[in-house]
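I am hoping you can look over what I have pasted underneath with an eye to the fold:
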Amino acid sequence: FIAGYPSAGKTFMGDYLATRGWEHVDGDLIANPEAKAMGSEEKVTAFWAAMQKVFKGGTVEREEWVPYYDLLIKLTKKAWETKTNVVLTYAVLGIFGGERELFKQHFPKMKFINVKVDHVELIERFWKRHEKMKEEAGFTDQQYWDYHEMDEARAEYGPVFSKENMTKFMEKTVYNPRLINIPPSEPDCFEIDNSDTKSNTAFEQLNAIAGLPWKTVDTDAIAQINYERYKNM
């Protein structure tokens, strides 16, 4: 299980393992029609609502967050039927408590990896990716701010987009420090450092955890895997 905040590189690391013969289950499921048929959209909506409760200091019942993880477990088991090695990537692990234990019930040898990146670097990457998405999809900042997904942001910060307020909202939600709790001091828990994307540090650390020998990283092959994931959306 590889966790990491948006733009940390968790999906990229999963795709890297796919180039090394692993099966990669992308936990976002946005481009997975099979998952949608299994109710992923309803389950992730409930999952997100549970996260918001935690952010606001509320208590959450297991039935509010476990169903989405159960779906990820089912998809991982299916991938495991045809591949010896499977990697699951998702941004959230540890906010509710009991997530690792849940996965260990099904995958006793599962390892949990947090892709670490300096916070300032993460936010810079987010805005770079945001600008690229704007250019490719042809939307404006205000149009993005007006999307249904940003209803909570507008309710708190007002109807007019500003980079400052959007950054504040992102830091309270998808970059909230409570989203990931994978203490490297605990069994089967690891961290890899992906702050410097020009170095091979993260790949070397991931290879060591996965038991893989060094091999030159094929970034074109990794990019192709990501392209294939989204080309039919």
About this structure: The first helix runs from residue 10 to 19. The two ends are 25 Å apart (CA to CA). Residues 69 and 99 are 8 Å apart (CA to CA).
